[in-house]
Design a protein that fits this description.
Blueprint: E1 8-13, E2 19-26, E3 40-45, H1 48-52
Antiparallel strand pairs: 1-2, 1-3
Amino acid sequence: MWLMRFAIDAVFVDKAGRVVRVAERLAPWRTAVFARGAAEVIELPSGTAAETRTQAGDELVFEPA
């Protein structure tokens, strides 16, 4: 979140695409605690995780645009 000027949601996922942690509404200039087992982090607009009810254990499917 260094140099960011707005809040975001961070979704930590493992190699299989399963959500291992959701950090909602991360304020600018703050850091999120790493999630054990996470291979990637998806940064989303603040509030998106709550709107979509994304939570640990969910499996994300990625499709080409």
